Amino acid sequence: MQKSESERVVKVVPIPEDIYDKISEHADKEGLSVMGVTSRALLDYIDKHVDESPLKNARKDKIMHDL
After folding, report:
1. Which residue, of 38, 40, 45, 63, has the fewest CB within 10 Å?
2. How many CA atoms within 13 Å lie on the side-chain side of 7?
3. Euclidean distance between CA atoms 1 and 17, whole angstroms
4. What are the tens digits of pLDDT across the range 9-43?
5. H-run or E-run covering 23
6. Is the pTM of this model over 0.70?
7. Domain layout of the chain by residue ranges
């Protein structure tokens, strides 16, 4: 079965409650959601560890647009 453009795959990964609480505190200080903070952290990781490429930039632009 082929996915349409509007379908997304979401992977849910459980994290320990103490880590979630720390992320939540950080998010509250910045006026963001936990998902927003973790999404930004993922983008920062991609920026640091993935070589520059048009594909990387396109993905990053799409993620930022969806936030």
Report:
1. 45
2. 5
3. 36
4. 777 778 889 988 998 998 899 888 888 888 888 77
5. helix 17-30
6. no
7. 17-66
